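writing this on my phone so excuse typos. first protein, seq and then structure
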Amino acid sequence: MRLWNDRRLRLSLTGLGGQYLLALLGLGAFSVNTGNNLLYLVFALMLGLFLVSGILSRRALRELKVLGLEEGNLFARVRGGLRLRLQDAGHGRIRGLELHLVMEDGTVEPGFLGSADRSGETVVMLQARAGHRGWVHVRALECRTRFPFGLIEKSSFFQLDQAVLVLPHPRTPAAQPSSWRGEGQRTLPREGSSSPEGARPLRMGDAPGRVHWKRTAQRRQPWVRTFEEERPMGLHLRLDLAAWAPGRPFERELEQLSGAVLQARLQKREASLELHGVQGIREVHGHTACWRALAQAQAAGTP
């Protein structure tokens, strides 16, 4: 039952609270008709419990402010984490709050804040699932509580209107296109690290003096020694925005590029992205930077 509703606060009676209120009214009417002092005492205790429940649950919503929302790496159509930072002046006060975020074209699972942090700042992790890549607006935060007895539910609303960047869905690439440059090898000279640590098959550009003759004889193909100073160059991706028109094929290409960046991160390889657009060529380095660039990419070609 909705008791009160405005832009900042909403009060509603729970099922248990409705049963409790009916019992309270029935007991009050029976005590008035009989004039029994013991019934009056029980009625006063039940009424006091009902009032204390409302006061404590209302107090649990006070002195709470929203500092910000951090999206992290949130992919489209994949459940990811949102970090909600709250300023809490309760100094260890019991809250018992359910946190509900209102997101456009997406769903956010409710979070829970049990008690205040004495440091003054509290971080709550919420699990979200967005429907598309790009900027998505988070409109409001709703805090609900039935603390301590579950008789009345109180809800407090905070207006956020904050934009969250959703990364493209990381689709596993079926094959490696010609626009992707695979992993190569570079040598970082480090003093005292010239001892070999393993072997691998021969690649183009390897010096003949590094051939591992024993392993070559065992495998019947050329193998070379690997050294501790060798590091992978990583993956370099290239995307020509003028060659793509807006639509589902362009989105699938972005998803495959996003999946390639994810594979490079899991393999602890570097990743870079080269974007060709109407304003020139832009190159970004790093996994997160590549994902954010893909999330904001817009096709410049004609259908």
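second protein below, same order as before
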Amino acid sequence: MEGSKSIGRISSGIEGLDLKLDGGYPEGRSILITGGTGTGKSIFGIHFLYSACRNGKKCVLIATEEIPEDIIKQSEILGLGLSRYYESGQLVIEKAFQSRSEKVQTSKYGFTPEGLEIELPSLADFIPSSTEVVVIDNIGVFTLRLSIQDFRDQFDALNFVLSSMEGCTAMFIMDETACKMAKNIAEYSVTGSLRLSVNENPYTGNTERYLTIPKMRRTNLKLESIRFEITLEGIRLF
């Protein structure tokens, strides 16, 4: 651990997680959330946005896999309603999914990676300079057409641009398959990373969700596997 008290913290929106992180994510830095299907990655993003909006911060969500209406509906179901912040303009949801779908080249085989024309650093063009929190969900779609080196170069460039925006905290959400395709190199560029998983409990036979935090700079971490549940009130850690 290095200088855990010398950096500001921004709430994750999950009380139990903030306790594990000395008060929250390092402010003005970048966080990576990875995991397989159904592990709750996007819900971690919703928690973060909801908390930031409640605290008056200007937020941007760049959605590459869902339309705004679906994201808003999911937030309302969890009791983390983003609709009022979206309607007031405090939360901006960029419709990258729709733009990507419109531009994607199709054939009898369906979508092709060549249709993903936008480069990672270009995502910063969607983010006003006054933005305080940005969530990109899912950044893994860009691994489909890039070599590992190209992804690393572009991801580093995007991370640098966002870190240059004073006071902006970034969260990147990446699916497990894409993370493995890119050899987990995204974790090297960010300040902290959270890995989510779904595993069977060998003692009970129940399928359970777990969280590990392999990296969080300037934070006093315990290397442990933390069980959590997704409830009607959002995420609850044990």
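The first helix runs from residue 15 to 20. thats all i got for now
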